[in-house]
Amino acid sequence: MSIDRLRPVLWAVVLLVSLALPDAARGALTIEIVGSGATQLPIAVVSFRAEESLAQRISPVVAADLARSGLFRLIDAGGLNPVPHEPAQLNYEQWRTRGADAVVIGSVSRLPDGRYDVRFRLMDAVKQVQLAGYVYFARTDNLRLVAHKIADLIYEKLTGETGVFATRITYVVKRSSGFELQVADADGYNAQTVLASKEPIISPAWAPGGLRLAYVSFEQKKPIVYVQSLTTGKRQAVARHWGSNSAPAWSPDGKRLAVVLTKDGGSQIYLINAADGSGVKRLTYTSAIDTEPNFSPDGRHLLFTSDRSGGPQIYRMPVAGGRAERLTFEGTYNVTPRHSPDGKSFTFIKRSGTRFNVAVQDFATRQVQVLTDGDLDESPTFAPNGKLIVYATGVRGRGVLSAVSSDGRIKQRLTADAGDVREPAWGPLQK
Amino acid sequence: MKKLLLSVLMLGLVAACSSTPKEQDGAAVEDRKPGESVERPAVKPAETKPLTDKPFAGGPLKDPNNILSKRSVYFDFNSNLVKDEFKPIVSAHARYLQQNSGATMRIEGNTDERGSREYNLALGQRRADAVRQMMQLLGARGGQIETVSFGEEKPRGTGNNEASWAENRRADIVYKGE
User: In Å, what is the CA distance from A351 to each residue of A44, A201, A313, A361, A370?
Assistant: First the structure.
């Protein structure tokens, strides 16, 4: 049960696992795993006591989360009588025979206030000890979220990495009727429309707290940057200057946005206050295109795209002002830089020949690794644990979202029921 | 009474728990271990506000026999140079702006679909700016022309081929009210 046993050794087989859950409502996005770590931790997730009566069962969601990560192999937990829900009821020998290294058990009970008490335990079937156990209280409509939080704790316990199953993603769906900015759980379920418009919506960006989005909407016949609260639906145009306004990026404290304005001629990077768009401060002074700013996790630097050298390349400059340093030198077209959560690397789109692919460059070694092989990959965004990068790609003329592990081994495809899906952004860890 | 007691007990537990789950390494879940109250407010959508300008009167700008009815300037791949064949259109509109000082226009830059959306937005802006600069050289005032970009977001040609891409490497002239 060590972390080493989980570490993928080589990518030997390509799996195609459909994870559509028979007992749950279909989400707007269905997720397929393409590829996995060759070494997967065998784990059994037993049905929770009294979950059959719930509108949303817990254990299937936990199992699907773990399987989707590519780091776990689900062991059959059916055909047991009685079904174990407490450690004393576990026959460890039986689980070892089935090949499980870990077993998840749990139970659900209704509280007097109508909420549910959901508790689970993660048991080590080899050492026969409890590795984690926790209790959650939640209303019916938050039971999926509870399941994701349980999966997060199991993932953390067994891999040593932060789980991101309880996070959310945003993306834009293009339909014949227009454009929808949506927010969904990281497993693609529970998709909700944040904004619908006949005109394009691009560049959604999560505020650090995960409760606000900045984005660019063309509804006023030009690009304008808005900030919208997810909980109240209230929104405000924070950059509506003469010309075009675009490419919002949040500072880590959520107080400022870096944006691209053309009000002084050319596309240049500015800072504004996220609350109301005041305090406009110009950061770049070139006659070139400077765009796609992205704050470092410590808030001190910006990565951005500039064609000051001829073609578009990636640069870094201090937010306080100062010289910009060019970071990419391989190839003639490198765009859309985004920091990794630990600040040690960045992902970007690199053109090779006629293809556009997701790449990662390490700040210290400057080594570049190309992770994808699509024709038109774009908009890469790191999961908040840095383990996955979600991006948009074209499949048979239609936009779909894909994800790739930051080592390139595990790939997932997220497909929508209908429409073109693009412009993904992975939300922050939320409480 | 029993119910009330339990409610009070639960409230106490909720109040006592921190918002992030505590590590319970190797410790059994007891019946009354502090738990985490899980709540996430529902998403509430917003509505867009379409732009509603006054309807445009017409005149020479709408006359199909007048060069002013021509509104599109096309560009070569990766270029923002106004080609000779489009200079008569640009100078006709510059003249119109000069003669009608109350008229204002928006020049909308567009690009093909390949590459980064935001970088393409900036490339489209550069094309719109190139047309504006030429009009200003020919006598239009800068305040009469707002340049904006749609980047690759509003393609006129939707095919994945050179003909469509060429159609989309374009700047369009739109007078206020049109």
Answer: 43, 24, 11, 14, 10
Which helix (H) or strand (E) is B128 found in, with range?
Answer: helix B117-137
What residues in A contact B40, CB-CB < 8 Å? 142, 145, 430
CA atoms within 13 A on the CB side of B54: 2
* Selection from A384, A323, A333, A380 nearest residue A354 by Cα: A333
- Looking at residue B142, what DSSP letter applies? G
pLDDT tens for A271-301 read: 999 999 999 999 999 999 999 999 999 999 9
Contacts of A65 (CB under 8 A, 6+ apart): A147, A148, A151, A155, A165, A187
Query: From A150, which residue of chain B is nearest by alpha-carbon distance?
Result: B21
A365-393 mean pLDDT: 94
Asked if B51's CB is within 8 angstroms of A219's CB, the reply is yes
In Å, how far are A350, A362, A389, A408 from A369, measured between CA atoms? 10, 9, 13, 9
In this prediction, residue A412 carries a pLDDT of: 84
Task: Look up residue A146 and give its DSSP letter.
Answer: H
Calculate mean pLDDT across residues A36-48: 86
pLDDT band at B136 (very low <50, low <70, confident <90, very high): very high
User: What's the pTM value of the predicted model, to 2 decimals?
Assistant: 0.87
Nearest CA in chain B to A248: B118
The single residue listed with the structure tokens 């908040």 is A384
Which strands sit side by side in the sheet containing A224-229, from one edge to the other? A201-206, A212-217, A224-229, A235-239
Q: Are strands A72-75 and A41-45 parallel, antiparallel or unpaired?
A: parallel
Contact B125 A267 (CB under 8 A): yes
- The pLDDT, as a whole number, for residue B36 is 82
Provide the pLDDT confidence category of residue A16 given band limits of 50, 70 and 90: very low
